[in-house]
Amino acid sequence: MATSSSEHKSQDKKLTRRDFLKLAGVAGAVGATLPSLMSFGQVLGSGGTNNNTNINQTASNMSTTMNQQSSSVRIFDLDRAKPQFQSVTGSRTIMNADNFPILAGMGAALLRLQKGGVREPHWHANAAELSYCIAGN
After folding, report:
1. Is residue 128 part of a domain?
2. What is the pLDDT of residues 59-104, one digit of tens each?
3. How far is CA 92 from CA 80, 85, 108, 115, 128, in A?
4. Residue 130, domain member (yes or no)
């Protein structure tokens, strides 16, 4: 009885760090999304014994939750805010809990670099940072 080498490799393959991080990311996304769709009691299945009633209540509560979320939209216009730093090499506008209270523990920044401006290399020991270049050459 012969087995192909790909079948043999798949049986011996261990979970790599990269695969583990992918799975952890998916689990985190599902865990973060589920509570926003249902209340704590509905996730655990507590409540009445009639399934049809529970389904209708769940749909009603989800609709109410979605309406509450959409009615509490908050907007901060980084483009129109006054920069905290400005020079001939560029400007930096910061959005954090000081000027947008809902961002407690978080922040965002708009960095505009002119010719000759540099974003210094750095790292954060206890925070993640995403940087996107929108335009330039």
Report:
1. no
2. 555 555 555 555 578 888 888 899 999 999 999 999 999 998 988 8
3. 12, 5, 10, 15, 19
4. no
* Neighbouring C-beta atoms of residue 62, cutoff 10 Å: 15
Segments of 1-137 assigned E as strands: 85-87, 90-96, 107-113
Give the pLDDT of residue 15.
78
Give the chain's count of helices (H) and strands (E).
Answer: 4, 3
What Å distances lie between residue 13 and 9, 10, 33, 35, 126, CA to CA? 6, 5, 31, 34, 32
- Whole-model pTM: value is 0.44
Cα separation, 36 vs 104, whole angstroms: 19
Domain that holds residue 33: 5-71
Rounded CA-CA distance 111/132 in Å is: 10
Predicted confidence (pLDDT) per residue in 8-52, tens digit: 555 556 778 888 788 877 777 766 665 555 554 444 444 444 444
- Token duo for residue 13: 């393959």
